[in-house]
């Protein structure tokens, strides 16, 4: 079974209803928390997205509170989800991806860390699946040889095929 590396663009779908929510919910039912990976900065991005939705009146204050509670319970620092911390050397090793693929800094760091994780996992028969709705990040990840999945455009059956038994 592979590890699911969730970008904030996909992860937020677990906590607010939008295109791709059903597929992300399926992923959470299929992948154990210890095989899920999030970037520490991506966690802050999820909170930022939820706050923008609340402030823009796209979700109610009560929905925001419930989403925030659920998010902290499932992927917060006390969960079994793997949280990748960003440090200076990791950020520096991601610089080239910003220019090469025209992606933002957070996506470049996610890509760098996914590649760093993929090498030892592949040696053991596993792999990293980058789950995102950010098209530039997905293109860059594919160009670097990573498996990708877009919950907005792909189905639960397609996810199952990628994850294997």
Computed structural class: alpha/beta
Number of helices: 8
The coarse silhouette is globular
Q: Quickly count the domains.
A: 1
- State the CATH topology: Rossmann fold
The biggest beta sheet reads: 5 strands, parallel
Any idea what the CATH superfamily is called? 5'-nuclease
Unreliable residue stretches: none
CATH architecture classification name: 3-Layer(aba) Sandwich
The overall pLDDT average reads 95
Binned strand content: 5-15%
Which CATH class? Alpha Beta
Total DSSP E strands: 5
Rg is 15 Å
Fold blueprint:
Layout: E1 3-6, H1 8-11, H2 21-30, E2 36-39, H3 40-55, H4 61-75, E3 82-84, H5 88-101, H6 105-123, E4 128-131, H7 135-143, E5 147-149, H8 156-163
Parallel strand pairs: 1-2, 1-4, 2-3, 4-5
Please describe what this structure looks like.
It contains 8 helices and 5 strands. It is an alpha/beta fold and 165 residues long. The protein has one domain: 5'-nuclease (Rossmann fold, 3-Layer(aba) Sandwich), CATH 3.40.50.1010. Helix 3 packs antiparallel against helix 4 and helix 5 (88-101) crosses helix 6. The longest helix has 19 residues, at 105-123. It is globular, with a radius of gyration of 15 Å. The N and C termini lie close together (7 Å).
Q: How would you sum up this structure in a few lines?
A:
The protein has 165 residues and is of the alpha/beta class. 58% of the residues lie in helices and 11% in strands.
């Amino acid at each position: 079974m592979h590890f699911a590396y969730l970008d904030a663009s996909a992860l937020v779908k677990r906590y607010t209803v939008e295109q791709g929510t059903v597929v992300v919910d399926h992923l959470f039912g299929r992948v154990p928390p210890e095989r899920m990976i999030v970037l520490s900065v991506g966690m802050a991005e999820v909170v930022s997205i939820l706050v923008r939705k609340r402030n823009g009146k796209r979700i109610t204050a009560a929905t925001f509170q419930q989403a925030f509670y659920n998010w902290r319970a499932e992927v917060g620092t006390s969960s079994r989800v793997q949280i990748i911390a960003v440090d200076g050397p990791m950020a520096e090793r991601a610089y080239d991806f910003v220019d090469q693929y025209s992606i933002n800094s957070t996506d470049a760091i996610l890509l760098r860390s996914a590649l760093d994780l993929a090498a030892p996992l592949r040696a053991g028969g596993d792999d990293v699946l980058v789950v995102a709705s950010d098209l530039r990040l997905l293109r860059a990840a594919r160009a670097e040889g990573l498996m990708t999945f877009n919950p907005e455009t792909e189905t639960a059956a397609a996810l199952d095929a990628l994850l294997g038994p």
